[in-house]
Every structure is written in C-alpha cells, then in structure tokens.
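re the bet — no i am not wrong, look at it urself. input seq straight from the record:
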Amino acid sequence: MYRIVFDPSVILRGLINPRSICARLLSKHAGHYKAVFSAQTSQLLVVLLYHPILIAKYPNLAHIDPRLVGVLMTTFAEKVTIDPAPGRHIVAATAIAATADYIITDDPSTTVACYNIGIPLLTPLEFATLLAVDHPVEPD
C-alpha cells in the first residue's frame, strides 16, 4: 500500500467538485493508499476552506463542513509530527516525516518546494492512473 502525502489543494479540489479526479482519489481509490497528514497540513486545509478569495470564486466551498476534513484526517489517514524548520515547505516536511512513497500535487509552488527531497511527485491524474492499473475500479 502506498504512503502518500496530499497537497492540501488536491483535497480542497476533491471537496469542491465531487466529479473531479481529486474526488475520486478521496472516495473510490481511498482504500488503496495510506494518506499521511501533519497537524500543519490539516491546519492549512482548514485555512483554505475559509479563505475569502476561494469562497468568492467557489461559493459551494462555504457549504463544506470543516468537520468533514477532521473526519477525513482521522478516519482515513495517519498523522505524523513534523519539525517545521524555517524555510521548509509544510508538504515537504510532512512527506519526509512520513517516509512517503509519493507526494500528490499539481500546485507549482509545492512542486518547486518538494522537487529535490527524494520523494516522487505525481499529479492527481498520474496517481489515479497508477492506482487504476494496480486496482481497477468499475465505472459509474
């Protein structure tokens, strides 16, 4: 089973659009990987849920119960403690502490920050493709 760290924006997109590839990763494929979070990645996700610019752009974001994020983190994920070293990106620190197999992101800033830490970066589509090859899922 793969140990992965999601960029919080991937989870956010999955919550915003239930038909997206990100949502499928959080639902149909969830039993085929172990997601790992730190307190800092969880906090960042909650901050994104309440971000006024994002709420203005995605009005249905205001209807997502932040407790859902807590359930997601505690039910389907493992927590790690990170050392928030100055200048170290939260996702990179979480992936290192988790000894993750992959970081799932398509955010350019996360990609740059995590590029040389020795953990492969996959986009949500690449990760879904990898999981579909290993664990085919029936279409809707």
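see?? The CA atoms of residues 97 and 108 lie 22 Å apart. told u. also The chain has one domain: 2-134. so pay up
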